[in-house]
Amino acid sequence: MNGGGEADGANGGARGDEVGRADVGGAGEEYVARAFLTRVLEPGDEVGGRWLRELGAAEVARRVRDGRPQLAGVTDRRWAGLVARARDAEERRDLDIARAAGVRFVCPGDTEWPRQLDDLGDGRPLGLWVRGRPSLRMWALRSVAVVGARACTEYGSHMAATLSAGLAERGWVVVSGGAFGVDGAAHRGALGAGGATVAVLACGVDRPYPRGHTELFTRIAEQGLVIGELPPGEHPTASRFLVRNRVIAALTRGTVVVEAAHRSGSLVTARAARGLGRHTMGVPGPATSGLSGGVHELLRADAVLVTDAAEVVEVVGEMGDLAPVREGPVLPRDLLDPGARQVLAALPGRGAAQVPEIARGAQTTQDDTVARLYELRSLGYVERHGDGWKLTRQAVISVRAKRRRC
Q: Is 131 helix (H, G, I), strand (E, B) or coil?
């Protein structure tokens, strides 16, 4: 995966440099205008998205920069705020800073643009600032989001890392938000398995947040991708974290929530995935754990319960990508002939029984019962006491184990 992805990613970066230097005309003007507007419009602004759809990025940028004529759908106060932002925006400087940091700007229409993001309609990103060499479009084609609580338990961290490592080993890209807790464990699990991972940030990708994950983001950028909607140097806010989650949901084939309380932001990702027609999955936790309460609500709705990577792939993969059938341990009695098992089951747990009684319980003839009893005796399951037959100690243990399994 890394070989072809790196070539595509490098081409995408080269195109960004070339178009970023274009001052006017065609794709270059639109490209620079979108880079400018990432500094002016907040991520997920559907009003701004409608402007771009109806007028094009270059015209929207011109009007916001000039301050007139005012575009429809916003109050005078909001328009004044956008115009003030536009005065401070320096898209050329942003593109230069990004280029120096090894970051490229990818926008709709580029060959590297993941087309599934278009499902967000007017709320799709104006563009994405991408750090890392692989092709975002190619990696997103076979990706799964793994998200969950920041203050996760050891169980949540273990499940996120194990599940992500399993996905990576199966050739899937793990996408998460780079936060502490489940997100970080998911990224590390994929990296540890030598796999691919993408961190979607709610800030500029040149100054990733949280700072405690600086080393992790460096590793992700070297082995995978760090992406975001905001231009260089931009800081995260609570609203930007929530809006960022729609990108994680849209980018991937499905979202797995490992641990989440009832008000967890990861549930926003799951709901966005469901609204976009993506698969939603949840890893169950203890019924008494508040950190699993949100996951259990998802499962009570229409999310699919998953416990490992094989089950996730069964949901998001191609036809035939089936998880192995789960079965308990094979007991010696499971290897008996069905007729012999029937006779064995007809013997009482305590005391002895005579052949007619055993035959009635096994729903067979007395002759067949006698033959089966001697067969079972040779295998150590029953013993004869006068005219009666009873279970041996070995058989009693086997029967109890069978009942526990049922």
A: strand
Q: What are the angstrom distances between the C-alpha of 13 and each of 9, 17, 202?
A: 6, 6, 21
Contact 213, 180 (CB under 8 A): yes
Question: Among candidates 9, 85, 94, which has minimal Cα distance to 42?
Answer: 85
pLDDT band at 379 (very low <50, low <70, confident <90, very high): confident
End-to-end CA distance of the chain: 45
CA neighbor of 140 nearest in space, from 222, 248, 219: 248
DSSP SS3 for 105: strand
Strand order in the sheet with 128-131: 103-106, 128-131, 225-228, 197-201, 173-176, 143-147, 254-257, 279-282, 304-305
**Total tally of structural domains belonging to the chain:** 3
* CATH code for the domain in which residue 392 is found: 1.10.10.10
By C-alpha distance, which of 284, 382, 310, 300 is closest to 340? 382
Q: Which phi and psi angles does 179 have, rounded to 5°?
A: -80, 170
Helix residue spans in 141-265 (DSSP H): 154-169, 182-192, 214-223, 238-251
Structure tokens at 115: 């087309």
Of 390 and 4, more confident: 390
> Degrees (nearest 5) of the Cα angle 161, 165, 168?
140
Query: pLDDT digit string (tens) for 243-301?
Result: 999 999 999 999 999 999 998 889 999 999 999 999 999 999 999 999 999 999 999 99
Q: Do 149 and 12 fall within a single domain?
A: no
In the chain, the largest separation of any two C-alpha atoms, in whole Å, equals: 107
Q: What does DSSP assign to residue 232?
A: T
CA distance linking residue 110 with residue 106, whole number of Å: 6
Among 44, 26, 28, 20, residue whose Cα is nearest residue 94: 20
CATH number at residue 162: 3.40.50.450
Domain assignment of residue 220, yes or no: no
Which domain, by its residues, includes 157?
A: 142-202+237-316
**Mean pLDDT, rounded, for 150-176:** 96
Give the Cα separation of 10 and 12 in Å (integer).
5
Q: What is the pTM of this model?
A: 0.78
* 47 in a structural domain: yes
